[in-house]
Amino acid sequence: MGRPDESMRGRSVLLWAWRGLGAALAVGSLEFAAALGETPVSLIPFVTSIAVVLGMPEADPAQPRALVGGHLVSCAIGFLILLTLGSSPILAASGVGLSLVAMRATGTMHPPAAINPLLIVAERLSPLFILAPIATGAVALAAFAFVWHRIGSDAPWPKRWL
User: What is the pLDDT of residue 43?
Assistant: First the structure.
């Protein structure tokens, strides 16, 4: 029988392989949904969210409150800027900074979501963007992560829902 450290290393490799497979499947699903919805995948800001939620499930930004709330809060900042001030590179950049402050203030810090105001302001996106792909995608990612982590990990995900 192998040494305990070899056994732990083997379990770690398998866990990371499982997480990597989950991330690949989630991104593939994202690409498929983007094609079905005729939305450029570059306007669907979930690849880094997938990396956080599947790669670092124990981290605070990977918890459902941060994942869903962070995306919604940052979108709200983006639309507030777009609807009141318009669109410009400076306003888009300001939206990123303001979204970080807003996520921190609301306890929904999810750094990947900070791109949402940039996309919203720079691309002049419709308010429907908050429903699809954002709200739908964030909830779908949380559901996927819940099932994926339950199947392939000793540590249940999430640590907390809210």
Answer: 85
pLDDT at 2 over 60: no
49-74 in b/e form (b: 16+ CB < 10 A) is bbbbbbeebeeebbbbbbbbbbbbbb
Tens digits of residue pLDDT in 99-116: 999 999 999 999 999 999
Rounded percentage of the chain residues whose pLDDT exceeds 70: 98
From first CA to last CA, the distance across the chain in angstroms is 43
Task: Pick 40 or 28 by higher pLDDT.
Answer: 28
Quote the DSSP letter at residue 42. Answer: G
Element (H, E) at 145: helix 136-152
Distance of alpha carbon 25 from alpha carbon 61, whole angstroms:
21
DSSP characters for 65-130?
HHHHHHHHHHHHHHHHHHHHH---HHHHHHHHHHHHHHHHHHT---GGGGHHHHHHHHHT--GGGG
Amino acid (one-letter) located at 120: I
Which of 160, 159, 157, 137 has the alpha carbon at shortest distance from 71? Answer: 137
